[in-house]
Amino acid sequence: MKKLLLVSLLGIFILGLIACGGGDAKSVLRDYINSMKSFSEDMNSADSAGEVTKALNDFSDNMESIIPKMKTLSDKYPELKKMSSKGNLPEEFKEFETEMQEVATKMMGAFMKMGKYASDPKVAEANKRFMKTMQGLK
Predict the structure, then answer these.
(1) Of 76, 74, 94, 95, which Cα lies nearest the Cα of 85?
(2) What whole-number distance in Å separates Cα of residue 93 and Cα of residue 116?
(3) What is the rounded distance in angstroms from the CA atom of residue 132 to the CA atom of residue 129?
């Protein structure tokens, strides 16, 4: 599962960074990484169903603004999908690989924490929204 999450994260990363090149892609990528980091931190510090719900909803809010930018890049450069689905990071972007691996690990921990509160109706609803939002990455 960790490998799948990392490949997914790297895929989106590659599409964002390569497709635009320069400042725009880096800005989208930075927003994406920061959003994942914030979500992980919020989830890992959550001590109640309400805090888990808020973390999920905040992440969904952030991703709802980031995903359209990523999709635009992906649509503009469809040839990158094959490369990104294999998790192949071009040499010039290898410097970001460690950060993406760290984020993937933290995200996994965040999802494990959510399991503790999964039976709460508000958490379940926020998770449903989260899952729907993340389907936008496909």
Answers:
(1) 74
(2) 37
(3) 5
Q: How many CB atoms lie within 10 A of CB 115?
A: 10
- Spatial distance between the Cα atoms of 55 and 138, rounded to a whole number of angstroms: 22
The rounded percent of the chain whose pLDDT value lies above 70 is: 62
Instruction: Indicate whether this model's pTM tops 0.90.
Output: no
Buried b (16+ CB within 10 A) or exposed e, 57-95: bebbebbeebbebbeebbeebeebeebbeebebeeeeee
> Residue 21 has what DSSP assignment?
-
Quote the CA–CA distance of 68 and 99 in Å, as a whole number.
23
Spatial distance between the Cα atoms of 31 and 80, rounded to a whole number of angstroms: 20
